[in-house]
Amino acid sequence: MRAVVVETPGDADALSIGEVPTPAPGPGEVLVKTVASGVNRADVLQRQGHYPPPKGTTDIIGLEASGVVAAVGEGVERWTEGDEVVGLLAGGGYAEYFVAPEGQLVPPPPGIDLVSAAGVLEVSATVVSNLDVAGLTRGETFLVHGGAGGIGTFAIQYAKALGATVIATAGSPAKLEHCRAHGADVALDYHEDWVEGVKGATNGRGADVILDIIGAKYLEPNVKALARRGRIVVIGLQGGVKGTLNLGLLLNKQATITATSLRFRPATEKAAICASVEERVWPLLADGTISPAPETRIPFDEVRRAQEQLMGGDNVGKIVLIHR
Question: Are the C-beta atoms of residues 65 and 93 closer than 8 Å to each other?
């Protein structure tokens, strides 16, 4: 089968299309012929050599993909050949076929085609699972960084559906407008003093929950922006892995910092998250409460361009690779 191959980690030129063996589904697994693959920052990190897959997982890049069931392994009960599915993967999405455990597949959301569906599951699973960890509740204030990206666009809408007041950060007038158009009550330019912006928007109280894709660079500013008993969930490290923190400030606020990775969770946890997404998010997509992020479709053979566009700074929403 055709798949994206990385011989030596590096820039986008390290990506090439090559021939690799087609995987076979083991017990409880499903083989899917790929229709489209979601493109994520984690894919770029893996290409650069900074985010290796879990032990025993294929080294083919790709954490989400959609397609049609081609074969099922022993013991699979829900899926049969020809079913349309979307998969949450530990790897392997940038390929003509991928294998996933039965529980990490869901049907595409009602009314959304398979190509668009390829860019919905990973962001949904990430946001839902982490806002469950944070315990975001109705009436609280939620801050999300990177509000114009795939995760940010979904997080704004999902938090609003939960009844929260939403603050988002972004880096340009167009992206700030994007955040507001998708439900953000307040949109702040991260080039300016967004911590003061959060305090101003909350009458000095701060945010109850912060979903952070930046990491080290925002560690201390995030704590300053928190309300008493606030919760930070770190899900990305775009701003580095080592930061400094005034523990006295964290203590005084009785605050909590959690860091999570969806990719490295056990299959049973991922299956439970996928089931939760299907139960709680798919109806919100079906009735228009949540709309998918703006989408850029790029041919599979142009995978280098897809990753370069993702990292270029101007991208809004989601990028998906289309397989022919």
Answer: yes
At 150-184, the pLDDT tens digits run: 999 999 999 999 999 999 999 999 999 999 999 99
Separation of alpha carbons 255 and 248, rounded Å: 11
| pLDDT single digits (tens) 51-94 | 999 999 999 999 999 999 999 999 999 999 999 999 999 999 99
- Beta strand extents in 62-192 (DSSP E only): 64-72, 84-88, 97-101, 105-106, 141-144, 165-170, 186-189
Q: How far is CA 136 from CA 139, 159, 200, in A?
A: 9, 8, 21
Residues paired with 17 in a beta bridge: 4
Tracing tokens 């930046």 back to the chain, one arrives at 214
- Which amino acid is it at 258? T
Distance CA 215, CA 233 (A): 10
Phi/psi for 311 (5° steps) reads -90, 0
**Which residues have C-beta within 8 Å of that of residue 268, sequence separation ≥ 6?**
103
Say how far residue 259 (Cα) sits from the centre of its chain: 14
pLDDT band, residue 264 (cuts 50/70/90): very high
* Inter-residue contact 73 to 26 (CB < 8 Å): yes
Instruction: Give the CA diameter of the chain.
Output: 59
Enter the pTM of the model.
0.94
Spell out the residues 6+ positions from residue 25 whose beta carbon is closer than 8 angstroms to its own.
31, 71, 72, 73, 76, 99
| C-alpha to C-alpha distance for 41 and 243, rounded to whole angstroms | 21
Distance CA 70, CA 265 (A): 26
What is residue 240's predicted lDDT score, i.e. its pLDDT? 86
What pLDDT is recorded for position 316? 87
Among candidate residues 186, 148, 158, 162, the one with its CA nearest the CA of residue 294: 148
Q: What angle do CA 110, 116, 119 make, to 5 degrees?
A: 110
Token duo for residue 261: 């990775």
